[in-house]
Fold this protein.
Amino acid sequence: MKTESIEARGVDYSRVFTQAIDRLHAEGRYRVFIDILRNKGMFPNARCFAGHNGPKPITVWCSNDYLAMGQHPKVIAAMEEALHDVGAGSGGTRNIGGNTHYHVDLEGELADLHGKQAALLFTSGYVSNEATLSTLAKVLPNCIIYSDELNHASMIAGIRNSGCEKRVFRHNDLAHLEELLAADDAAAPKLIAFESVYSMEGDIAPIAAICDLADKYNALTYLDEVHAVGMYGPRGGGISERDGVAHRLTIIEGTLGKAFGVMGGYIAADRTIVDVIRSYAPGFIFTTSLSPVLVAGVLASVRHLKQSSAERDGQQAAAATLKAMLRDAGLPVMAGETHIVPVMVGDPVKAKKISDILLAEYGVYVQPINYPTVPRGAERLRFTPGPAHSEAMMRELTDALVEIWDRLELRAAA
């Protein structure tokens, strides 16, 4: 009996996958990961291995290690000490072999940072958002989540995976948020989920006003501070600390891989809420815990930034200087009051072309930001100047961008 080939009677899987990648190329948004190594103690200097005969020196302009704490001597020393004290890995989940004294200490420091009773560590900021939001809504019967339209993909995933009702309000639009709150059953559990600093726009949420609405409509609040922890406030507690409203928020979520320079995510809240997430969230329960080596590095970073504002001050000064240089040069830098410096391009192919020229000809590394990270037509370059970026580096970057803008005949800022 003749047997049909698998291809003849089924899907051509290879063709489907190839077409999926081809679509990204055709739309100009296929992502290329750069091959680099940072130079310890010399950030933002790095070495690029892609397309060269040996490493080429470059300057990194798009790292989320905003304060260069991943290079800080205290952080590196703490990680080396932990490595030689306890070894490399954690040994398992927190429930089975993976709970160490480093984890306990760091959770205490993070709870203190935000003025909360407890904190809980996750392996990343994405996981902390997805696991917490999806679990909260499942624990609260008939919960409705109100989500800012520009919330991060991890928050959107958590809300979707919760299976609860959701309402999306226009970005930072208090009137629209209240309209949605008022239209729903007053007795239904409600949660408002939003960010403090929106990393692609560089703007800040009206936290106090959102808390006012939460009080008025008996809603819980969930604030993502990933682009603000370490960066704002007297001790690095984020925008909520800077504005004196941390105590009004139900849950504060943050990352350990940006301003703190290492890896991981966390939430801080009252003891019972943290215990619920610890006890019910699959994304926490079934995941190997962070290596104690990483946790030791974060612990050193958090403790340092609670005491030192020098890094924050230097970073804010660098961001202000670069924004002014780009604006004075007629480049389309987006307005904003944060450390994020986005330059609008508005076309995925051109954004990638600018990025490629900067790297190949000027030794400047900045990734283009395309859909789905930002809406189509809002493609941009996102610069994150830090305390170690000198004015000379900024001038070289500005001059390079002006030359490329002229070369590609791009429209200058009005």
Summary: The longest strand covers residues 190-195. The chain has 14 helices and 16 strands. The chain has two domains: 27-60+309-408, 73-306. The first helix runs from residue 13 to 26.
